[in-house]
Amino acid sequence: MGNTRVKIFELNDQELTFDFGTYALLMYYAKQIDPIKGKKLINATISEWSYRIENGIQLDNITNDNNMVHFIISEINTVISFIDSELIPNLSNEPQNLITKYGGESNFVNLYDNNLDYLKVLCFTKDEFFDGDTHQLIFLLNELKLFFQYAINQNQPFKVYVY
């Protein structure tokens, strides 16, 4: 167990919070299922500033204190479908806790560090809290899917914070 960093998504009166290690575990798992859709998922959960830095896009007037998420509705719709049709069904069929599947927290961190690609934007550490319980992860993915749908219905990007 480690520190208590969390990732928070916020729009109007709606808020969704993930333990940062659990979020990283889900992003890693998504990448294992489908690297292209996994990248769309992570892009839908990072700030526009982070997205532009990661992809070498001109910042214009966007600074690192801008917490607005990278928001492209068609990509978020793809992510919602990915969550529904691939991530949740695959997690439902996992016979064990994901941390156990990946050989424990330390081994997961090693797997993660050796397989970064676009995941390097997360900057998580071995001191994070990880919840690999598949039922909890399915619950969180459903909550994230509902949050994405809410943002689309509002036609408004949301804010993302890491504390």
List keywords for this structure.
three-stranded antiparallel sheet; 3 strands; single chain; mainly alpha; 163 residues
Outline the structure in words.
This protein has 163 residues and is mainly α. It has one domain (6-162). Helix content is 52%, strand content 10%. It contains seven helices and three strands. It has helices at residues 20-33, 35-43, 48-55, 73-92, 98-101, 105-113, 134-154, and strands at 6-11, 14-19, 159-162. It has a three-stranded antiparallel beta sheet with strand order 2-1-3. A hairpin with a 2-residue loop joins strand 1 (6-11) and strand 2. The mean pLDDT is 91.
How does the helix and strand content classify structurally?
Answer: mainly alpha
Percent in helix: 40-55%
Distance between the termini: 16 Å
Number of domain units? 1
Helical stretch tally:
7
Low-confidence stretches: none
Gyration radius, in Å: 15 Å
Strand content: 5-15%
Strand order of the largest sheet: 2-1-3
* Series of H and E elements: EEHHHHHHHE
* Overall 3D form: globular
The strand count comes to: 3
The overall pLDDT, averaged over residues, is: 91
How would you sum up the major sheet?
Answer: 3 strands, antiparallel
